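Quick one: co-fold with dinuclear copper ion.
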Amino acid sequence: MPRPAARLVPLDGALLVLVATGCSGPQSALDPAGTGASWIAELLSWMASGATLVWLAVVALAIYAIRSDRDPPSERTARLLILGGGAVVPTVVLGTLLWFGLARMPDLLVPPDEPTLHVAVSGEEWWWRFRYEPPGEPALETANELRLPVGAPVRFTVTTPDVIHSFWIPSLGPKIDLIPGRVNHLVLEPTRVGEFRGVCAEYCGIAHALMAFDVVVVEPDAFEAWIASRRAPAAEPDAALEARGRDAFLSHGCGACHTIRGTPAEGLVGPDLTHVGARPTLGAGLLPNTPETLRAWIARPEQLKPGARMPAFAMLPDEELDAIAAYLDSLE
Ligand code: CUA
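Sure, here it is.
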C-alpha cells in the first residue's frame, strides 16, 4: 500500500509557519534589537551549526558502517576511531564553542564609572517598579512601562522585596534574576527604535504569566522629552466627572497604596499612577488601557488577574467607579 506522503506536506507547512512566526515580533530573541540579543542570536546560530555538523557526521558514519561490506577494522583502527570521535573531536568542538561564548561576555558589562542612564528595577507581586536615575538628575518612578533611548547602554540594577523573578526583554538582551536581599546588574543597549515586550522569566507565583511590561525604544531627543513629561505632576482634572473621580480616589483611601504626584496620594505599595492614562497597557501588560478596562480593574482586579494584591472596589456606586476610571484615564 502506498504511504500517505502527501498528507505530511500541509503538516510540515503548518510547522514551518509556526516556527517562522516565532522568529520575529516584539518578544523574539531571534529578531534582535539590542547588542546583547544580537550576541545571543549569533551564539545560537554557531551552536546550532556546530550541533548540526556533528549530527550529520555521526549519521554519515552510522550509514557508512551499516552499508559497508568491508571487513571489520583492526583493533588499532577501532581504538583510534573511538579516541578521536569520542574524546578529541568533542573536546575541540565544545572547547571552541565555550571560548567563543566566554570571549564575548565582557562586552555585556559597562565600566561603573561611565555615565549611563541607570534604571533600578524591583519585581513586585505581580508587576514591575521602574526607578529612573539619569546622571545628575533626580530619580523618577514609574511602573510596567520602560522607555529607553536608542544607541546608548542602560545600566539596570534589579532586586525584589519577596519572591524571585527574572527580568527579560528577549529583543534587547539576556535575562537576569531578581533575588530577595541581592542586587544584580544587567546592561542593555538598544540598537533600533521600536516597541517590544518584557516578561518575567522565572516562575514566581500565581500571576507569573501575567506580569509583562511594555518597552518602547525611541531616539534620544524623544527620550529626554518623555522623561520631562513624566516628571510633571499629575494633570488637574478639566471636567466635572474627572474632578469627582479624583475626590473619590482620595476619599476611598486609594492614596494609601498609590502615588499621584501633585495630590495628597503618596502610597508606595502599588504602582505610581501619576501618568497612568498614558501607559499602553493595564495590570502589567494584561489589558489595553481604556476607561472600560480601568473601571473593570478597580471593581474586580482579582477576577482579571488571580493573585492581584489590590482589593476589589465593586461595592462603590457605579457613578463613582465611572468617575475614578475617567480621572485615571485623564492622567496622561
Ligand atoms: Cu515574576 Cu515570574
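If it helps, Residues 194 and 217 are 5 Å apart (CA to CA).
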